[in-house]
């Protein structure tokens, strides 16, 4: 079962990387040189003589993360920032761990389609189309669900036990914009009169919400 699932993830990432993803590489490898001050669409290639197996290795998804926050979920990314060898390859993974009742709040990935495989537990998942239609489903261990590129989506653990998923992306750095965090903790702040009109609430409510997303001092 696990072999078939990861084969499906590999096929998904391979096909999607040629359809709508990061630019294809023009050399065998281009390990990210994150120490370079040069800015390009991606990362400058590291001197190949200095490349090692460590540039292509990461064991951070092996164990569940400790969940200790208000939303009840933790995302552990395995992208180019963690694995320099992913630079120009157009793929990455993440692990998401949820406590009972935990939520991965509504968010988008502006640069990637996402495919999740449930390792354990049961989740309610969904995304919203640009026609404002909710596409949702309850999924369990061994199931797969896809969130199209750029669309707002979420996952909610409605079970009494922790849950975990592996996410596959067709980008080395998919990016994440959490809707609530983006709007209520931007710097500089989004003007209150924009938020009051958008959400049809008063200024006191806006300030109350902003205070909940303020950085911990």
TrEMBL record:
Q: Does the keyword section mention GTP-binding? A: no
Write out the residues that bind oxalate: 104, 109, 114
Location of this chain's protein in the cell? Secreted, Extracellular space, Apoplast
> Would you tell me the Gene Ontology cellular component terms?
apoplast; plasmodesma
Q: Which GO terms describe its biological process?
A: plasmodesmata-mediated intercellular transport; regulation of root development
Superkingdom of source: Eukaryota
Supply the InterPro entries for this chain: Cupin_1 (IPR006045), Germin (IPR001929), Germin_Mn-BS (IPR019780), RmlC-like_jellyroll (IPR014710), RmlC_Cupin_sf (IPR011051)
Sites where the protein binds Mn(2+): 107, 109, 114, 153
The stretch of residues making up the signal peptide is 1-21
**By its UniProt entry, which Pfam families does this protein fall under?**
Cupin_1
Q: Which protein is depicted? A: Germin-like protein
Organism classification, top ranks? Eukaryota, Viridiplantae, Streptophyta, Embryophyta, Tracheophyta
């Amino acid at each position: 079962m696990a072999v078939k699932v990861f084969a499906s993830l590999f096929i998904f990432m391979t096909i999607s990387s040629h359809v709508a993803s990061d630019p294809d590489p023009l050399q065998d490898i281009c390990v990210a040189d994150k120490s370079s001050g040069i800015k390009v669409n991606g990362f400058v290639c590291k001197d190949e003589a200095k490349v090692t197996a460590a540039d292509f290795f990461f064991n951070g998804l092996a164990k569940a993360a400790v969940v200790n926050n208000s939303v009840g979920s933790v995302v552990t990314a395995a992208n180019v920032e963690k694995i320099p060898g992913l630079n120009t390859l157009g793929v990455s993974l993440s692990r998401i761990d949820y406590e009972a009742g935990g939520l991965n709040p509504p968010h988008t990935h502006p640069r990637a389609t996402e495919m999740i495989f449930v390792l354990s537990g049961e989740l309610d998942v969904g995304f919203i189309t640009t026609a404002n239609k909710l596409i949702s489903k309850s999924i369990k261990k061994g199931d797969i669900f896809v969130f199209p590129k750029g669309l707002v989506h979420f996952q909610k653990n409605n079970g009494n036990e922790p849950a975990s998923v592996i996410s596959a992306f067709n980008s080395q750095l998919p990016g994440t914009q959490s809707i609530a965090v983006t709007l209520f903790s931007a710097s500089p702040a989004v003007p209150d009169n924009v938020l009051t009109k958008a959400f049809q609430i008063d200024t006191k409510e806006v300030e109350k919400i902003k205070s909940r997303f303020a950085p911990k001092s």
